[in-house]
Amino acid sequence: MLARSGWSNPDGAPRASIQRVEYRLVEDRLERRVAPHLDGARAGPPQVLYRGVTEARVAFIQNGSEAPAFSASSDRPLPDAVRVTLTLDGFGPVEQLFLVAAA
Questions:
Q1: Secretion signal: which residues (predicted)?
Q2: CATH number, domain at 75?
Q3: How far is the C-alpha of 11 from the C-alpha of 2, rounded, in Å?
Q4: Is there a single domain that holds both residue 35 and residue 58?
């Protein structure tokens, strides 16, 4: 689960500009579910982003080293980057590196 800021609100709906986003792999589908609030509001129905995903991996990068999990601390609340690798049926691995802004 992630928190995403910058959620556009052109209609002025009564909600925050931050939303909770959950990505999950269900069978061969990459799905996204979004909750309108961070405070435990129920997420909406899943939206299928891609079919044919055979594997999903996440790695957290800290000081040049990668690990499958990240433990936040008071002096380092966020990793330097997050690497997401999806293996797609008929295509192979696709990798995206997300740099994490310093707080």
A1: none
A2: 2.10.70.20
A3: 24
A4: no
